Amino acid sequence: MKTLRLGRSSLVASRLAYGCWRLAGSEGQPPEPTSATGLRAIHAAVDAGFTLFDLADIYGGGRCEAIFGEALRDSPGLRNRLLIASKCGIRRAGEPAGAPGRYDFSAEHLIRSVEQSLRRLDVETIDLLMLHRPDYLMDPTEVAGAFGQLLAAGKVRAFGVSNFRPSQVTALQRVCPLPLVVNQVEISLLQINALEDGTLDQCLAEGLTPMAWSPLAGGLLGSRVHGLLPAQRSYDPTRVNATLDRLAVALNSNREAVALAWLQRHPAGIQPVVGSVDPGHIQAAANADQLQLSREDWYHLVTAARPTPLP
Fold first, then answer.
1. Engineered SS bond to 60: which of 24, 43, 283, 285, CB 3.0-4.6 Å?
2. Catalytically annotated residue among 59, 136, 235, 299
3. DSSP 109-145
4. Among this protein's residues, is 299 annotated catalytic?
5. Which pLDDT does position 225 carry in this prediction?
6. Domains of the chain
7. Are 277 and 22 in contact (CB under 8 A)?
8. Are 53 and 17 in contact (CB under 8 A)?
9. How far apart are CA 235 and CA 212, in angstroms?
10. Does the structure show a pLDDT above 80 at 269?
11. Contact status, residue 41 vs residue 70, Cβ threshold 8 Å
12. What are 202-253's pLDDT values in tens digits?
């Protein structure tokens, strides 16, 4: 698989990232009784050429990081071939008892979260740490201090954000001496706001890599729907999928690969995060790396995705 450099860091990753949020089972479903499905998915992604694995402390209540740590222990030498990304900053309701669900970018919580992730992963360093969702009480100076401590201790190599508006990225980067290297947001042919809300423009201007979570809109742009998030249940893929199918035939490819290649065609260097645990679907997604859409094909898909014609 082709590679890209993450932002202005020294980290070089596969053009597609593998999303680990389903390693322990789908959100809202009973957890998998064993780690077998997750381990099989990790190795399928490695075999398909993925080198960046995207995790978070809340995925599976920490179990996804533990399964990934198990994969690393079972395969000596694998850690040196991969980049580990994880996220923190979301706190569940009831932690501690009586507390609401909330976001927490206090230095104490960020440092503690990283230390817990390192234990679950059984590694010394996380390659890329992202703030998962914006904390309304974020103090950029405090966050910058926590980042500095984690870097100095060798616990994190590079930093980024997730689901941040451009103004929030600017507020943090203005006081943080360490470069933010990614902003992970929802981008797909059924969620194209990043084209118009300044997110991709900022990534181009500031040298951040945009990472696209749910690049297949929870499966609506693939061959099957699985684990849709509530906000995605209102998406209507009919027009987009008809155009994807037409292009897939013309390009001798598949619907998933064309949808992912559409993201990769953007000059900001979008890195889709693919989250299937089905080895066949993982390989099908990896085929996107072989496609190069023309400008005309790219705009055919945008036209199908927009509710109104281009102005």
1. 24
2. 59
3. HHHHHHHHHHHHHT-S-EEEEEE-S--TT--HHHHHH
4. no
5. 57
6. 3-305 (3.20.20.100)
7. yes
8. yes
9. 17
10. yes
11. no
12. 999 999 999 999 999 999 998 765 555 666 667 889 999 999 999 999 999 9
